[in-house]
Amino acid sequence: MAECPMCKSTIKATPIGSKTVGIQCNCNGNAERYFINSGTVDDTVSEYIRKFSKNTSPSVIPGKIIRDTPIVRTAPISKIEEYFPSEIIPRDIQKQILKEIETNIKLGFKKIVISAPTGVGKSAIGMAIAKYFGTGFFITKSKSLQDQYTRDFPILKSVKGKSNFECLKLMDEHKVDDPILAKEMGHTCEKGVCLEGTEENSEGKSIKTFCTFKPLIKDVTFDTKLNESTCTYYFQKYFGLISNFSVWNYSGFFQLMKNKSVFTDYLEKKVSIFDEAHGIEDQIINFIGIDISNKQLDECKIDVSRYNISDVKELTALLVAMKKFYATQYAEIKGNDGDLKILEYYDDNFKKFSDFIGQIESDPKNFLISDNTNDFGNSVTISIKPLLISKYVDDFFNTEYQIFMSATINKKNFCETMGLDEKHVAFIDTPKSPFLYEHRKVDFLDVAFLNSRSSFTEEQNAIRKIDEILSKHKTERGLILTSSKKRCFDILSQLSPENKKRIRICHSSNSDGTTQDEKIAQHRATSASVLLSSSLWEGVDLKDDDSRFQIIAKAPYKSLGDTRVRAKMNKFPSWYSSETMMKILQGFGRSIRSEDDWARTYVIDSTINNLVKQTRNIIPKAYWDVLQIS
């Protein structure tokens, strides 16, 4: 048993839920302290010991964004470079990118697209740009990337959603003192009710009253300290808004821009820097589109069989019926002084459907309907998504300057998707990867052409080859990427017993109730573990020994059963292939994350060989060597 470095008593560790560990010792009257589970219970105990040991160095040493290859800082070759983070020595490739950015700004470009592979240090480049302009928003796709930005650059203030913060009001009601435990128990700001009712002001007008923990933005300044009577969620949001530099996820940023009239005085930033910009289309579709479940239809007492969903007029009539239901329920509950949480639920749904009806009526031909009413295994009964996102670009991307960064982005396709005139968009394509070719070599094994018409023998040969590769790397951790959850289980079922034991199927939600992050933490804590997934093509960092090999088992084509995919493919014939190729290139980068890192990549599906030839004109130059493009 582990010993506490402070009181020397034995530490007792108790898992609480899926993400929290309670730790007790003689310190603090044997009261339980709560910590986020960092992998296993033993890992959390080790972190506890490091945290409270006076003679131990910090448990986390911030990693360098790039390797400091030059020993001496050379003179800047652009004005923007003078704003490069002082703790990092810029490499030649970063200096050149910054110079090209400055040249394009001087030429009058307000939108700049940067294609630069993993390892170039795009975040440091983005920070230099923001400091050059004096104010800026950073937008990225996940909380983990927000955390990475703020670790590397403390000047950035992170703004996250309500589900990440404990609700002080619910903590009071349930008599929970510890914020970590409160979040584990589900007492988050997402579940709490900010609205408390209405009252008359001095002019006799009815105004809304809010939870006493909620601060006013005018009361939050750089000198304001967070205290136990101030809502953590609103404090961090307002602090981010008043700061010169803040980092948001896409959904939060789009919501901010949608309600910009409320925060007009705080949105006058000079530049927006969009990370992982190749995924902007999906982010907008998810934000604008709407999914209707059977549960919602039952709640609104709607018989969907009475409507011809494929007809826009009848679909609109269904949406109007749902809007009226929520409006009626809201009025009844408000009149009877009912539960405020339910009141807020009906009000939110009324606004959501009202807004969406307006969008469909303004441009009915732009919305595509997926009718899943006969698919009883699908929780989403009706899905409605926009085909083109160009009409939303001005709403969401309206700072004076916009920088779009990605390792896998092509100017023509990006401008086509965003509805931008290519003549008004500058493009910087990094000519080569900063990583050695030998460290990121790709083996095209040409095993079989895998698709829905593949023979049993072809599928068997592919899985046999995967098993051989796993045995070749029997002592190392690795990653297998494929196209669907079904293929994950098909692969697992036919592996040898020895290799089957190493596999962890990993998605955003998993059959054993664990999250993606928890699966990855288990993987990192287990020798020779292998992740098998259809969703880890991007957004995951498996550096160094977390993965020394990766297998691209099947090209990740989007499903042609999706109404929007078919429509987009018909409108833009090259989109389907280029989208798939860019996703494969994202997959190549999961296991090689720095100059000293290395991993071997194996491609099983022969379709990818042909895909490279079809899309060579849009593939970023940094990948030409490993793809053998001359």
Can you describe this structure?
Helix content is 37%, strand content 16%. It has 630 residues and is α/β, with parallel strands linked by helices. Strand 18, helix 18 and strand 19 form a beta-alpha-beta unit. Helix 20 packs across helix 21. The longest helix has 24 residues. The radius of gyration is 26 Å and the shape is globular. About 3% of the residues have low confidence.
Strand content: 15-25%
Structural class assignment: alpha/beta
What characteristic shape results from the CA principal axes?
Answer: globular
Mean pLDDT, to the nearest integer, reads 89
Report the sheet with the most strands, covering strand number, pairing sense and barrel closure: 7 strands, parallel
Task: List how many beta strands DSSP finds.
Answer: 21
Distance linking N and C termini: 60 Å
Rg estimate, integer Å? 26 Å
Q: Which sequence of strands runs across the widest sheet?
A: 6-9-5-10-14-4-15
Helical fraction? 25-40%
Tally of individual helices: 21
Uncertain stretches of 5 or more adjacent residues: 54-70
